[in-house]
Amino acid sequence: MSGKEGPIQIDVNAVLHEKLGKRASRVPAWLVRRIEKLIRQDGLNELLRHAWPRRGADFCEAVLGRLDVRLDVVHPERLPAGRRIVIASNHPLGGIDGMALIRYFASVYGDDLHFVVNDMLRAVEPLNDVFLPINKHGAQSREAIAAIDAAFAGDAPVLVFPAGLCSRRRGGRVEDLEWHKMFVAKARQYHRDIVPVHFIGRNSPRFYRFASLRERLGIKLNIEMTLLPSEIFRGAGSTYRLVCGQPIPWQSLGADARSEAARIRKIVNDL
User: Fold this and answer.
1) Alpha-carbon dihedral of residues 256, 257, 258, 262, nearest 10 degrees?
2) Residues with Cβ within 8 Å of residue 71, at least 6 apart in sequence
3) pLDDT tens digits for 134-178?
4) Hey, what domains does the chain have and what are their CATH numbers?
5) How far is 156 from 160, CA to CA, in rounded Å?
6) What is the pLDDT of residue 136?
7) pLDDT tens column, 115-138
8) Are 163 and 178 in contact (CB under 8 A)?
9) φ and ψ of 147, to 5 deg
């Protein structure tokens, strides 16, 4: 990505030269064009230009407005007035759902909020003020651990997708993968109630077929993520639904964080 004096722009060719150096010249031009088309480079860059120089929730507002994406919120009266909460959501889409949650909860609680995300999303620079990046595939740095603890110890709401990755099809049903326990442990440690919310939506059949094929072939790298930009544009003009659940008091959380994460995942699925 580039954009020191203007909007960040995605440039596949530049990324290849940065990562591969002189070897980038060996990558066929047709393959570069194919990658650009696959990740919807032109469309993403148009969105980034439209949203610039907005940041945080304002950036999300601009992008979702350009895409004409709306959110219908069910039972907003269940949301507590206090801001020291953990908002735990399923993760059906992999793009629009995150931006819609940032936009909505900023409208409820103010722009000062945090979102625990995969550290790969640090590339989305306009959201770096919101994101708390964690390494999903290795050890956490001291800086990342300290930033997460500081966020949970503070007064701003914390958003989490406990599954980490977006939903996949399992046994004919589209649902989240196993939820990680970190958000439960931190809620107990820092005395934060958990607000379960269910974001209703799904990606295209192509996305789930590609993910299933990748798994059958034994490929560990989640290469289906390259399809997520297309899924963002597929959602243009859509109205999604967010169902808010009853807050779960931190005092009621059991000592087994893994079991509690599974229990709260079921609560979300049943909303």
Assistant:
1) 110
2) 100, 103, 104, 239, 240, 241, 242
3) 865 555 678 888 999 999 999 999 999 999 999 999 888 999 999
4) 56-270 (3.40.1130.10)
5) 13
6) 58
7) 999 877 888 899 999 999 886 555
8) yes
9) -65, -40
The three-state (H, E, C) secondary structure of the chain, written as one string: CECCCCCCECCHHHHHHHHHHHHHHHCCHHHHHHHHHHCCHHHHHHHHHHHCCCCHHHHHHHHHHHHCCEEEEECHHHCCCCCCEEEEECCCCCCHHHHHHHHHHHHHHCCCCEEEEEHHHHHCHHHCCCEEEECCCCCCCHHHHHHHHHHHHCCCCEEECCCCCCCEEECCEEECCCCCCHHHHHHHHCCCEEEEEEEECCCCHHHHHHHHHHHHCCCCCCHHHHHHHHHHHHCCCCEEEEEECCCECHHHCCCCHHHHHHHHHHHHHHC
Structure tokens at 36: 């650009």
| Predicted local confidence at residue 154, as pLDDT | 97
Kindly report, residue by residue over 20-76, the tens digit of the pLDDT: 888 888 888 999 899 899 999 999 999 999 999 999 999 999 999 999 999 999 999
